[in-house]
Amino acid sequence: MTGLIAELVVDGRIPQTPALAPNGHLLCYVLAPTSQIGDHLDTALWLADIKGDGVWRRATADTATESRPRWSADSRTLCFLSDRAERGTAQLQRLTRTNHVVIALTSWRAGIIDHLPLADPNLVALLAEDEPTEQDTRRVQDRDDAIVVGEREPGARLRLLDLRTGHVTTPNVFGDRHVVELRQRPDGGPLAVLTQASADPDYGPRTGQLHLFDPTTGTAEDLGPVEADAHSLAWWPGEDGWHLGYIALTPPVLQAGTAVFDLAMDSCVRRNRTADLPMCPTELCQTGAAPLVVFADGLNATLARLDPDGPTPLSQHPGHLDDLTATPAGTAIAAVTGTRYQPANVHVGPPTGPLRKVTDTRPELNGVTFGTQRPLAYRAADGLDLDGLLVLPVGKSVSDGPSPLVTIVHGGPYGRYADCLQLFWHPSAQWLAAAGYAVFLPNPRGGQGHGHEFAASVAGRVGQQEWTDILTGIDLLIAEGVADPDRLGIAGGSHGGFMAAWAVGQTDRFRAALVSAGVTDWGMLAATGENGQFEAALGGSTGWEGIGPHPHDAVSPVSFAGRVRTPVLILHGAEDTNVPLGQAVYFHRALRHFGAEHEFVIYPREGHSIQERNHQLDFLRRTRSWFDRWLRPADDGADN
């Protein structure tokens, strides 16, 4: 058996966005590396006839970033985006199955953001920003390029590509609104178009509107506003006419609690079709009949059909079920899923299951011994049912405890831990289990998988009951003899980083902490983060609501920096726009002011997620080294 080293983690390849052809025979997916070497992330398309020889063949051999494969209605051609001509600027390409020749279909100077082959075989709908004008170019050259916020902001526009002529036209519809998503009615009718007032992620998600667009006449019809963060459009026919559905946040909560909304086109009646369900919709998948819905269901996933009386469960799957694609009849699906000890791969089968694994993109992990992973179910202090995962040190059982325990809190907070392989470049359970740690992965309230009320319960109250939910789980593992109470660590990224920073200001129980891209001041995040209105809803206030004290001050870790006695490792990307670097700088300066033991590491060129291979390697090794230094596990011989 093979020991787990950092290179095995970061040098993997991940299957993404499978596209099942309408004939149900051909399947394409994107294969992406876990880490980036150089200035660009090189991906590739792979194709197979899953009802023929089943042999996977690389369809694109160029060095490029390739994405968004979509089949034509006759399954003969595949369109996708690629920046093979100019790195960083994607254009639409077409691959013909008969001769495997790739032809560029666009040369739009601003690049193509998304595309949708239409029922008319001569038309493709495109999403793209406006091309720069000669005046724009002169202004850049002359440095006369002052930015007036709100004017000429970039946004995706609907374009139509005529495959017969190669001409791209821009219908005069939707004004300056940013187009988010398109979906054509299964019978070849109009396109449902989702727009926002702006591409600004702070402002746009609250300004969504639905429209109909007729590609034949070029005319549009407004259907009215939609709930915040709407996405995943799907059409279906009903006895009362056509319906249009989407997933969005349940009003009035801004940061969590998704639902499937159903708009009956003839009556204009809108309904929440998943209200009061103890699970959360993550994807809608259009078919020629009732759409399929993927739910985050506790630690696992449920696939359902959206029938007139509500969702009808069809099958259950371990962990996640992502990137669902289906044939028009809805009788065959493909998706990305995995197991506790197998990484995610493309699986195919009927929606009722079982699904068959058709790829093996990480064979290098086949000989690795992983720590035993088991689901946890327990109750919070107020009786709320909670779940999570426990991963034991490699080669050990519960009876071999107690072990040093690291608790890793997920992000979001509207994320969750699912019962799948916990191995990533960021702090992950199997990486630490290989070094002799037991790892607790809690799903406290505020997360996904248990319905709207559970998800919405932390709005304006972050760090309160979600914190005691985590402590309750830790105490349970101590009582069971799994965890050594004198060797506890805590870690997390994004909202999980907030929880780690919060923890060390509330208790001295932890001997080491890791704060990765963590929130330390909610008021500053509402003012500078790219999702400010969502962050204000979580923190409970903004800094411009009077002279204070503000509610967000009481739930910001920096307010408690003077209490910190736990050594803290702070890791942050220099170009993070989600949780800007200033959050880490603020916490670092506060800890330095009070003389608290800590280390602060900044990764140049990185955003909210670390991409570059050397940075990922450093992240993994530094994480282990930090906990080894302060928790001193009994097994000091683990590979690094």
Task: Identify low-pLDDT runs.
Answer: 636-640
Text of the CATH class of one domain: Alpha Beta
CATH architecture of one domain: 3-Layer(aba) Sandwich
What gap, in angstroms, lies between the N and C termini? Answer: 16 Å
Beta strands, count: 36
- Range of strand content: 25-35%
Read across the widest sheet, the strand sequence of neighbours is 29-30-32-31-33-34-35-36
| SS field, number of helical segments | 10
Find the CATH superfamily of one domain.
Alpha/Beta hydrolase fold, catalytic domain
Radius of gyration: 25 Å
CATH third-level topology of one domain: Rossmann fold
Can you put this structure into words, describing what you see?
The protein has 640 residues and is α+β, with helices and mostly antiparallel strands. Among the domains are: 1-82, no CATH class; 375-631, 3-Layer(aba) Sandwich (Rossmann fold). Helix content is 15%, strand content 34%. The strands form 8 sheets. An 8-stranded mixed sheet has the order 29-30-32-31-33-34-35-36, sandwiched between helices. A 4-stranded antiparallel sheet has the order 1-2-3-4, with no helix packed on it. Strands 5-6-7-8 form a 4-stranded antiparallel sheet, with no helix packed on it. Helix 7 runs antiparallel to helix 8 (532-539). Residues 636-640 have low confidence and may be disordered. This is Peptidase S9 prolyl oligopeptidase catalytic domain-containing protein. Keywords: Hydrolase, Protease, Serine protease.
Question: Which key features would you list for this structure?
Answer:
4-stranded antiparallel beta sheet, 640 residues, 34% strand, 8-stranded mixed beta sheet, disordered C terminus, alpha+beta, 10 helices
